[in-house]
């Protein structure tokens, strides 16, 4: 902020930041009092601000209505606010101007409000509630040019009966080049590898955990036809010391790379 305050002649600004807070999110009042008031010539202001709020007392959590009220006399932009509270002891407040200008959108939850994000190529998903079919369909519609997708969700999906599968259209992630499923429940790895409800493009880079991959492939013996597995060009496996013959034979057309930590950025 001290740097921004010195830019008194600035006329246009796009602010893209992630802030760690103790008790309050980065809202409209903070923007006006600490930045905008020092820029008298500013006439175009767009932003994407994500506040990570650590807390122990849930009674003091910020309310979405309050946050939205702090932007009532802002520039002529549509301003969206999303706030999520997690049992792990933190909240996330994301405020941004729409249309969205950034190339990435991080930590999308089930409360995602939708919209069209043409500039976004990198997306990450996080929640303590499971992601279901409708959520992944919404992600496809909202981010048509998404190239990188990272999923962090340890909750299993709800079971969908086989009788329902025929009414679900196929979700096409046609521009995806990189998929990180390292920190997910087995259900999501199975969904993207074996399920017929999601279609992936060729030459995909996939990041997975070895134990999870071993479980969903039945220790690399699961019969596979017409699924997404043949489209994987590069497979990065976490916690794998060496590549044995079972993995080589199962992913015969894939370059396999063992890695010891999550490095899909």
Topology:
Layout: H1 2-5, E1 12-21, H2 28-34, E2 44-54, H3 64-69, E3 78-86, E4 90-98, E5 104-108, E6 122-126, H4 133-142, E7 148-153, E8 171-172, E9 178-184, H5 186-193, E10 198-199, E11 204-209, H6 210-216, E12 232-238, H7 245-250, E13 255-259
Q: Helix and strand succession? A: HEHEHEEEEHEEEHEEHEHE
What's the alpha carbon Rg, rounded to whole Å? 21 Å
Structural class label: alpha/beta
Give the strand content.
25-35%
Number of helices: 7
What topology, given as strand order, has the largest sheet?
A: 5-6-7-9-11-12-13
Short description:
The protein is an alpha/beta fold. It has helices spanning 2-5, 28-34, 64-69, 133-142, 186-193, 210-216, 245-250, and strands at residues 12-21, 44-54, 78-86, 90-98, 104-108, 122-126, 148-153, 171-172, 178-184, 198-199, 204-209, 232-238, 255-259. The strands form 3 sheets. It has a 7-stranded parallel beta sheet.
């Amino acid at each position: 902020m001290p740097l921004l305050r010195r830019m008194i002649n600035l006329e246009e600004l796009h602010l893209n930041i992630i802030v760690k807070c103790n008790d309050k999110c980065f809202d409209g009042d903070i923007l006006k009092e600490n930045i905008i008031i020092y820029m008298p010539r500013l006439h175009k202001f767009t932003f994407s601000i994500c506040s990570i709020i650590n807390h122990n007392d849930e009674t003091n959590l910020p309310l979405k209505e309050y946050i939205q009220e702090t932007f009532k006399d802002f520039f002529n932009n549509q301003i969206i606010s999303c706030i999520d509270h997690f049992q792990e002891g933190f909240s996330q407040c994301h405020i941004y101007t729409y249309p969205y200008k950034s190339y990435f959108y991080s930590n999308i939850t089930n409360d995602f409000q939708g919209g069209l994000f043409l500039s976004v190529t990198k997306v990450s998903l996080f929640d303590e509630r499971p992601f279901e079919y409708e959520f992944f369909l919404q992600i496809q519609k909202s981010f048509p040019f998404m190239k990188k997708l990272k999923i962090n969700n340890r909750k299993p999906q709800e079971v969908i009966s086989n009788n329902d599968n025929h009414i679900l259209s196929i979700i096409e992630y046609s521009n995806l080049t990189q998929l990180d499923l390292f920190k997910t429940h087995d259900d999501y790895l199975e969904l993207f590898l074996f399920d017929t409800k999601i279609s992936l493009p060729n030459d995909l880079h996939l990041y997975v955990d070895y134990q999870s991959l071993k479980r969903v492939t039945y220790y690399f013996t699961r019969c596979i036809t017409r699924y997404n597995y043949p489209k994987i060009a590069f497979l990065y496996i976490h916690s794998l010391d060496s590549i044995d013959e079972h993995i080589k034979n199962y992913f015969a057309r894939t370059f396999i790379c063992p890695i010891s930590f999550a490095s899909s950025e």
